[in-house]
């Protein structure tokens, strides 16, 4: 089972170890590996918040940017038929495939955030 928690615009991945009877996770999208754990949901949430606060304080003290930088490029893997249809659609719309994918992802992300705000 995997899930996420949020605090101060940071996301923590969360998993459960039945063997150890502990929730554990790490802060995602930062420049270092910072983990946290707890035996209850409350302990886990507090450990995550403490880890975020401690990490941000350490970064501030040493003058380090905490957030992972994104280059804006990544590889996409999809079914060949979907790739073909996307390429065809991009030509029909007078765009290149990259423009079509950026537009689609942008619309998806915008819709997801709009849906989240109304939930």
Topology:
Elements (H helix, E strand, L loop, with lengths): L1 E6 L2 E8 L4 E6 L7 E4 L2 H22 L17 H13 L4 H22 L1
Antiparallel strand pairs: 1-2, 2-3, 3-4
Helix pairs in contact: 2-3
Organism: Pontibacter toksunensis
Protein name: Type II toxin-antitoxin system HicB family antitoxin
Pfam families: HicB
Q: What do these coordinates show?
A:
By secondary structure, this protein is of the alpha+beta class. The protein is built from three helices and four strands. A four-stranded antiparallel β-sheet has the order 1-2-3-4, covered by helices on one side. A hairpin with a 2-residue loop joins strand 1 and strand 2 (10-17). It is elongated and about 55 Å long. The protein starts with a strand and ends with a helix. The mean pLDDT is 92.
Would you identify the regions where 5 or more consecutive residues have pLDDT less than 50? none
> Strand order across the biggest sheet?
1-2-3-4
- Beta-strand residue fraction: 15-25%
As an assembly, this protein is: single chain
| Secondary-structure element string | EEEEHHH
Rg (C-alpha, Å): 19 Å
Q: How confident is the prediction overall: mean pLDDT?
A: 92
Biggest sheet statistics: 4 strands, antiparallel
Amino-to-carboxy terminus distance = 23 Å
Q: Per the principal axes of the C-alpha atoms, what is the gross shape?
A: elongated
* Helical residue percent band: 40-55%
Secondary structure category = alpha+beta
Protein name: Type II toxin-antitoxin system HicB family antitoxin
Organism: Pontibacter toksunensis
InterPro entries: Ribbon_hlx_hlx, TTHA1013/TTHA0281-like, Uncharacterised_HicB
Pfam families: HicB
């Amino acid at each position: 089972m995997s899930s996420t928690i949020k605090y101060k615009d940071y996301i923590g991945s969360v998993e459960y170890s039945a063997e150890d009877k502990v929730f554990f996770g790490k802060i995602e999208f930062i420049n270092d590996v910072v983990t946290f754990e707890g035996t209850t949901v409350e302990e886990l949430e507090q450990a995550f918040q403490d880890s975020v606060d401690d990490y941000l304080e350490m970064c501030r003290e040493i003058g380090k940017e905490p957030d992972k930088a994104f280059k804006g490029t990544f590889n996409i893997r999809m079914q060949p038929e979907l790739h073909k249809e996307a390429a065809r659609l991009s030509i029909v719309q007078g765009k290149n495939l990259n423009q079509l994918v950026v537009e689609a992802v942008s619309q998806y992300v915008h819709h997801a955030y709009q849906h989240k705000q109304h939930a």
